[in-house]
From TrEMBL, chain B:
This is Carbohydrate ABC transporter permease. Keywords: Cell membrane, Membrane, Transmembrane, Transmembrane helix, Transport. It is a multi-pass membrane protein. Gene3D superfamilies: MetI-like. GO terms for cellular component: plasma membrane. Residues 93-289 form the ABC transmembrane type-1 domain. One of its GO terms (biological process) is transmembrane transport. The keyword Membrane applies. It comes from Caldilineaceae bacterium SB0675_bin_29. Belongs to the binding-protein-dependent transport system permease family. It comes from the Bacteria. Pfam families: BPD_transp_1.
């Protein structure tokens, strides 16, 4: 029996997964939070913007994978078509090992609409009187954002971070359909590796062991976030 | 609370509190806001727009550079021709009849009964068992994927929809948790009054509790529908026979065919057309049940 820890391929999978989680979760949650804040300000057609941003998150992942594969194609993809039109260098989104992970992160962020809706609901619960009070005390926009918005929505930020983490560690469908772990194993994420072991190489024992290691990793990361959250999450107001 | 808030908004801020740059700052901010938000929203919408517009093209319009934003002439026949390349009607029947409908019905029925037992009937050890149920939520599904597969293989259920829908008969922890929260908000006197009138526990659940929690049931049913309709990995693991495929696997199958160059023309338009048709029920449901969706995720944090 061989331990994973001697297996360079396992470490490559770990690196890919941590790269993906480490970028897609903070950027996804951060982008969702900023978009929600923009939507929360006085704005025309708020529910229209909200719907357009939310819908990608409920479209079947298979359907969105198909259109992204087409959009990101080197020869006839629309994105490269536009780049070429403006004389810019084309981007090998899914065929270059360096680009493949960031491309998948981009697709993940595109499907972050649910987090935007959750943030928006939380932002609308922040009492207006607090902003008014802060303005009267001379707080500018940044001060209000930093000292009113962030503390009062911090439990929801924590929630979205943890949920995002759990989902991102188990991401399968979109990378599987877009790159199947390639090119050169650069998008072989944890679940793809696990799926291959279980259902392609039929190593059920190894797959189960991989699953438990993933469980431990998720628990450890969640605990780290929870422990540090005592410093930045504010649970006042309610009691 | 609301009166205080509206009072403060209507009262003008005293002049000396406004610094000179404030009005310019506000205008600038408005400009930046829309300058960011409009392109951003357009780029969120673009992939779906591209899916639909490419579904209306033929090969020569797809491979033209620069890309054609508005196809003309349009080719709506792609929706029919693409659908017929593979037995998509069969896949749609499989998706609806064998997966989505039973999954939603079983989950809602079993989870309401379980949640009722955890919230409106007292029995020894109830709360301990409830927390055990909640703890199973913490387990990532990837961890249970392999042992479940081995169990269902042992039961001889491979290549059927049973592994995907039978577990729904045993409720879903997250949905139980949510429904329990809703059930607990209803006053105990309602049940007591019904009990005095001789109603059974099932009578109380179906005649009194459920009519009062319809919005919560709608949210739960909606999200379960979404999970089943969009599920790819479950059918991928359990189904081998192509005739049993749901739509999600059918699309993947079509994309493999379309990528084999020379198999048939208009591969990409057909793929986009079928993808549009599969995404359509979700998008239509969203527009009709927008409030339920938005309230649902705001309330529960459930993602699609």
């Amino acid at each position: 029996m061989t331990l994973f820890f001697d297996d360079p391929h396992f470490w490559n999978v770990m690196y890919n997964t941590l790269f993906y989680v480490g970028l897609s979760v903070p950027f996804g949650v951060g982008a969702a939070f900023i978009i929600a804040n923009m939507l929360n300000s006085r704005i025309v057609a708020r529910s229209f913007f909200r719907s357009v941003i939310y819908v990608p998150s409920i479209v079947p992942a298979v359907a969105s994978a198909m259109v992204w594969q087409f959009l990101m194609n080197v020869q006839y993809g629309a994105i490269n078509g536009v780049l070429r039109y403006f004389g810019l260098p084309i981007i090998p989104f899914l065929s270059n090992p360096g680009w493949a992970k960031p491309s998948l992160i981009l697709v993940a962020i595109w499907a972050q609409g649910a987090a935007v809706v959750i943030f928006l609901a939380a932002l609308q619960d922040v009492p207006r009187s607090l902003y008014e009070a802060a303005t009267v005390d001379g707080a500018n926009l940044w001060h209000r954002f930093r000292n009113v918005t962030i503390p009062l929505t911090s439990p929801i930020i924590l929630f979205n971070l943890i949920m995002g983490l759990i989902v991102a560690f188990q991401e399968f469908t979109v990378p599987w359909l877009l790159t199947e772990g390639g090119p050169m194993n650069s998008t072989e994420f944890y679940l793809i590796h696990l799926y291959r072991n279980a259902f392609e190489y039929l190593r059920m024992g190894k797959a189960s062991a991989l699953a438990w290691i993933l469980f431990l990793i998720i628990v450890v990361f969640s605990l780290i976030i929870f422990k540090t959250s005592a410093r930045w999450v504010y649970y006042g107001g309610e009691k | 609370m609301t009166t205080i808030a509206s009072e403060t908004t209507t009262r003008p801020v005293p002049r000396h509190y406004r610094d000179a740059g404030n009005r310019w700052q506000t205008v600038l901010l408005e400009v930046i806001k829309y300058a960011v938000l409009v392109p951003l929203t357009l780029s969120f919408a673009f992939p779906l727009y591209w899916m639909i517009s490419s579904a209306l093209k033929v090969d020569s319009q797809v491979y033209t550079m620069p890309p054609i934003l508005l196809p003309f002439p349009i080719h709506p026949e792609n929706f029919i021709n693409g659908w017929q390349i593979l037995p998509f009607t069969q896949y749609a029947v499989n998706s609806v009849v064998f997966y989505t409908v039973p999954a939603v019905a079983f989950t809602v029925l079993s989870s309401t009964i379980v949640a009722y037992g955890f919230s409106r009937i007292r029995w020894p050890g109830r709360d301990t068992i409830f927390w055990l149920v909640v703890m199973t939520m913490m387990l990532p599904w990837a961890v249970t994927m392999v042992p479940l597969f081995i169990t269902f293989k042992w039961l001889g259920w491979l290549d059927t929809y049973r592994p995907l829908v039978v577990p729904a008969l045993f409720s879903h922890p997250y949905i139980v948790f949510l429904l329990r929260q809703f059930f607990m908000t209803l006053p105990e006197e309602l049940s007591d009054a019904a009990r005095i009138d001789g109603a059974s526990e099932f009578g109380i659940l179906f005649r009194i509790i459920l009519p009062l929690t319809k919005p919560a049931l709608a949210v739960v049913a909606l999200f379960r529908f979404l999970w089943a309709w969009n599920d790819y990995l479950g059918p991928l693991i359990y189904l081998r026979d192509e005739n049993r495929y749901p739509l999600a696997l059918g699309i993947e199958q079509l994309s493999r065919r379309a990528n084999d160059v020379g198999n048939f023309s208009n591969g990409i338009p057909y793929l986009m057309a079928v993808s549009t048709l599969v995404a359509l029920p979700i998008i239509v449901t969203f527009f009709f049940a927008q409030r339920t969706f938005i309230e649902g995720i705001s309330l529960t944090g459930m993602k699609g």
